[in-house]
Amino acid sequence: THQQRFRQTSLAHTTIGFNHPFGTEKSQRNIKMTNEVPMKNEEGYIDVSFAQDGGVLKKIIKEAPDGASGPPPNGNEVEAHYTGTLVSDGSKFDSSRDRGKPFKFTIGQGMVIKGWDEGFASMKVGEHAMLKVRYDYAYGDSGSPPKIPAKADLYFDVELLGFKEKPKERWQMTTEERLAQANKLKDEGTELFKKQLFAEATAKYEDAASYSVDEG
């Protein structure tokens, strides 16, 4: 599957990770939001943890543009860039920027560390920020060897590039939704065919056919 291939190629799934024990605990979004202005600490960070216990601190490097979308709702697919470093010595352990490919995850579903689920829930599209994540909001007592030691506090230099409602899987769609998706893909295939992009057009048509077949 796509996720399996991505696990093999990206350290993000071992450090941010679907399979990491601290990536499976679902963050709870039951904290009442207020209009109070958060207080900054001496380093310019504000506490964005849901529990307001200092577990996730954020310092904005670049504000989001006026009218920017966000924060991303629970269950949306988030696209972001990040660079992770150790608070202790500044050594880098992972970076989507180095790979040249943004990282995508579903927010609020325990697919990533708790510090990410809660940190990105405070951001808007276009915002560039530094997250300081305490070890119990990251990889806990054991860390994630060999690059992340036990009880390691982490910095993440993050940019929220976008978010969107996660598309339904085929099995989640109604008959009408599947037919609409099939027609959409057929139309996209036709446009590609007109541009003589025959391989891409064929792939679209095949994808469209998979939505129109009754799986009984």
Characteristics:
single chain, 216 residues, alpha+beta, seven-stranded antiparallel beta sheet, 7 strands, 26% helix
Structure report:
The structure is a single chain. With 216 residues, this protein is α+β, with helices and mostly antiparallel strands. The chain has helices at residues 2-9, 12-15, 96-99, 114-119, 175-194, 198-212; strands at residues 46-47, 56-62, 76-86, 92-95, 103-106, 128-133, 154-165. Strands 1, 2, 3, 4, 5, 6 and 7 form a seven-stranded antiparallel sheet that branches. α5 (175-194) runs antiparallel to α6 (198-212). The radius of gyration is 20 Å and the shape is elongated. The two termini are 23 Å apart. Residues 1-35 have low confidence and may be disordered.
* Amino- and carboxy-terminal Cα gap: 23 Å
Q: Using DSSP, what is the number of strands?
A: 7
Radius of gyration: 20 Å
* Low-confidence segments: 1-35
How much helix is in the residues? 25-40%
* Order of H and E elements: HHEEEEHEHEEHH
Q: How are the elements arranged and paired?
A:
Elements (H helix, E strand, L loop, with lengths): L1 H8 L2 H4 L30 E2 L8 E7 L13 E11 L5 E4 H4 L3 E4 L7 H6 L8 E6 L20 E12 L9 H20 L3 H15 L4
Antiparallel strand pairs: 1-2, 2-6, 3-4, 3-5, 3-7, 6-7
